[in-house]
Amino acid sequence: MKKIFFSFLALVATVFLTGCGEEKSATQTDAIAKIKERGYVRIGVFSDKPPFGFVDKDGKNQGYDIYFAKRIAKDLLGDESKVKFELVEAASRTEVLVADKVDITLANFTKTTEREKVVDFALPYMKVSLGVVSPEGAVIKDISELKGKKLIVNKGTTADAYFTKNHPEIELIKFDQNTETFAALLDGRGVALSHDNALLFAWVKENPKFVVGVETFGDIDVIAPAVKKGNEALLKWLNDEIINLGKENFFHKAYDATLKPVYGDTVNPESLVVEGGKI
User: Fold this and answer.
1) Domain range for residue 196?
2) How many helices (H) and strands (E) in the chain?
3) Which of 39, 46, 122, 142 is most buried by a 10 A CB count?
4) Each residue of 190-214: b (16+ CB within 10 Å) or e?
5) Does one domain contain both 112 and 228?
6) Does 247 reside within a domain?
7) pTM score of the predicted model
8) What are 6-49's pLDDT values in tens digits?
9) β-strands 41-45, 83-87: how paired?
10) Are residues 206 and 236 in the same domain?
11) C-alpha span between 276 and 106 (Å, rounded)
């Protein structure tokens, strides 16, 4: 009887574990199946961060991230137009994934240890570091010059996190949107502004009375797509996509189409572009 009883328990355990495994596998597969059934992929992007993600004068989404997003839609659904852009702010990029409002966040999203606790990042497609921009008549050339002064940053960005952690002696003025942040610099509400240096290099092209006095500091970070935590099927698809796109030099083509017209020859594409997910 004991042998029969324990055999029965073993059978129940096997069925239970197999069922759990099948359910997990089905859920992961369903993530992509649901996108295909829906007929479009939802991707979170910026509306106010040219040349990476912005809305042009005709109301169309443009930029480096948009170029990539359209290719994702083409390869996933067979048509680059089958993408719904959800406009996000820096501080809400993880929230929209957790709340299942988007399938993928592509909003120039820097991979950090803290964010990895909440979302899953795919392979990188860009690298970046922080910089500081200030008026040409009062250029900030070193972080030490910001002591006791007001520095403008975006909430929830790596610049916000860096200065909050490492420089409590610097007063931070924070805004949600990039347009608000740069307007504050133009209005003189802070002596300088810190953001991704790739963005600052582009911004000073349009605002020649300002200078990127600190071109790089902190760690070299990577920009990568993110998906909801545990969405292994979509994560694997994205990783495979990035590896395959690297074989055709896709991200250099994206750079030439969206960033080079802004940067010209002042920025080496190799300092920003990552192909095939390899740093």
Assistant:
1) 128-221
2) 10, 13
3) 46
4) bbbbbbbbbbbbbbbeebeebbbbb
5) yes
6) yes
7) 0.80
8) 454 454 445 444 554 444 444 456 889 999 999 999 999 999 99
9) parallel
10) no
11) 16
